[in-house]
Structures are given as C-alpha cells and as structure tokens.
Amino acid sequence: MNHHDKLALPVGTTLDRFIMRKQEDFPYATGELSQLLRDIALAAKIVNREINRSGLIDIAGAYGNRNVQGEDQQKLDVIANIRFIRALRNGGEVCTIISEEDEDVIQTGNTQGKYVVAIDPLDGSSNIDVNVSIGTIFSIYRRVSPTGSEGNSQDFLQPGTHQVAAGYVIYGSSTMMVYTTGNGVNGFTYEPSLGEFFLSHPNILTPKTGAVYSVNEGSSESFSQGVTEFVAYCKDNSFSARYIGSLVADFHRNLLKGGIYIYPPTAKAPNGKLRLMYECNPLAFIVEQAGGKASNGRQRTMEIEPRDMHERCPLFIGSPELVDKAEELLAKEHSHDAVANS
Ligand SMILES: O=P(O)(O)OC[C@H]1O[C@](O)(COP(=O)(O)O)[C@@H](O)[C@@H]1O
Predict the structure, then answer these.
(1) How remote is the CA of residue 129 from the centroid of ligand 1, in Å?
(2) What order do you get walking across the sheet with 165-171 strand by strand?
(3) φ, ψ for residue 22 (rounded to 5)?
(4) Which residue of 37, 42, 49, 73 is surrounded by the most CB atoms within 10 Å?
C-alpha cells in the first residue's frame, strides 16, 4: 500500500471536502493554500459558465487587443483573466500574480498574502470559438519577497521544483480540475446542476509508455534532426498522431492514456512557443507526480532557472519512456553537432 492509499478518499468526494481532508495531513497547515485552491475552483466555475454560453451572449470572437505575447486576445481570454484575478484578489492569500494576458506583475493589494500565482487564464485560444476543448493552467509558489510588501518579479523567477501546487482546468465534454500539491495527482469532475467538483479520478498515474504523439507537424520543415527522427520513430511504431491544438486537452488525454506532447523549437518559435512559468512548469509538476516526465529536450523542465516571467521553452512531456526516447535522439543530434563543429 503506497503513501497515497491511506489518504484515499472515495470517488464522489467533493473538492472542498478533499482539500480539507488533505490539509489535515499537514499539522502546521494554516489553511491559506486550501483557500487559494478553492478560490481557483470558484473562478473556474464562473469561467466554465461563460464558455458554455459564449455563443449566446456575444462574448465569442476577438477582443481587438494584443497581449504581451503579441497574440490577438479573444474576448474570453480577457473575461477569464478578469475572473481569475478577481477571485485571487478577493481570496486574500495571494499577494501578486503573473498572467499570460498581462506584461507586468499584477498586485492584488493583499501584502500579507504568502503566495504568488502564475496563470494562463485560457489556454488554446485558437480553439475558443470553434467549440474545441480549452483550459486554464495555474502554478503556485510561496513568495520570496518579505510579507507586508508588494510582491515582485523575483517572486516568480523560481525553478519549477519550488512550486507548492499546480494544476489545470479543462473545459471539454465535461469540465474537470486536476491538481497536485506534491502528494499525487487527483482529478475532479464538475457537476453544473449542483455547482460542485467531485473526485472522479483519484491518484492519477500516467502509463509508462503509449502509442500517441502530439506535435504540430505543420512546422516539421523546421524541426531539428533529433525531433524529426523522433517523429519518424513514432510513425515507424504505428503511433497515432493526435493534435487538438489546445495544450491542456492534448496533455490531459496523454496523461490518462499514455503518449507524448511536443512543442519543439521551430523557425517561427526558436525557443518553442510555450511559456515556462504558466504552461510548462505546472504541467511538468503534474506529470512528474503522475509518474511521467517533462523536459526541454535536454534538461528537466522543473530544474530550469527562469530568467524572465514570460520566457518560452521547448516542451517534451508525457509518458517517461517516450520522453526518454526523445531525449536520447536529441542527445545524439547534439553529439553529431559537437563532432561536426569540432
Ligand atoms: O498552433 P500551434 O503553433 O501548434 O500552437 C498550439 C499551442 O499553442 C497554445 O494554443 C498556446 O497557448 P495559448 O492559447 O494560451 O496562447 C497551446 O494550447 C497549443 O498547444
């Protein structure tokens, strides 16, 4: 019986009760992190409602602004950003936030707050208007700046190994919240008629390998030798190609079924497209807690020392044997390059 079994809570336990019971495992816990997780769940319920009715109340489509990434903001990007920031501000546990939608840090006014949150309020923007699964991704750290003052960018430039919790919400055929606090990964399905998340996927473990690869082959012309060889390896072994174009949705499928998601360096995105702080690190924490792996092709994602709040990095994430295989072929590529350049 592993460590998690003795804490097992039955399927159908509400998220609130689950959070409370897990807090009891930490005698010195103050309840602030528990409340923070509840605040995120509340905002997720509101955003879920907005997404479900977006086609009816004219909140679909472009907002008309560009975000710090240079991407056209969708109206729902802005609404989700506002909803999560408001919930975190009202909760009182968070002093400062960084968001994919904002260039600078966002102060909540809660200078006594012990935590900072990095968030991608709505992931999969290209799929928002076409009824394809999208998501929210969040990462929680303890602040390093002194309590009583405003937080700052230094509070966020911590490696992923310092995360105290991370998770995502997937707005799909059903809405789920999946998160970890470093003691395994659990998934909760939302029951809109009751307004509650219920434990539906306890102690998620990802298969050691799989037969699904997720990469945008539209960019394959500019894939490196190693990435090209890995994609060929997948095809030679009759893997299925599955690419929804929403990171959360592709990641969630592969987490449960086995597989690998890759966003490599490309001509358009030499450092990859995904952001380290609020896309790569939180999903890396989840996948590792589920027995999987995440890397930038050479280094464990969660050991990367961030230099910028919005920095991008390549991502190879999923079943451990597939990430190992990808790293092996990339290492071969680099050794060839080293020989060629020597
Ligand atoms: O269209 P591309 O280049 O394959 O990129 C798709 C990837 O970009 C993303 O949409 C990036 O996220 P945002 O939508 O939050 O900007 C991922 O969800 C997805 O996996």
Answers:
(1) 14
(2) 106-107, 94-99, 115-123, 134-142, 165-171, 175-180, 185-191, 196-201
(3) -70, -30
(4) 37
pLDDT at 44 over 50: yes
pTM of the predicted model, to two decimals? 0.95
pLDDT band of residue 5 (cuts 50, 70, 90) is very low
Centroid of ligand 1 to alpha carbon of 199 (angstroms): 28
- Statement: residue 279 has pLDDT above 90: yes
The residue type of 155 is: D
What atom of ligand 1 comes closest to residue 218's alpha carbon? 4
CA of 209 from ligand 1 middle (Å) equals 24
CA quadruple 174, 287, 285, 200: dihedral, nearest 10: 30
Q: Domains in the chain, please, with CATH?
A: 12-201 (3.30.540.10), 212-341 (3.40.190.80)
User: Is the Cβ atom of 124 under 6 angstroms away from ligand 1?
Assistant: yes
**121 C-beta closer than 6 A to ligand 1:** no
Half-sphere exposure of 275 (CA within 13 A, CB side): 25
pLDDT tens-digit profile of 212-259? 999 999 999 999 999 999 999 999 999 999 999 999 999 999 999 999
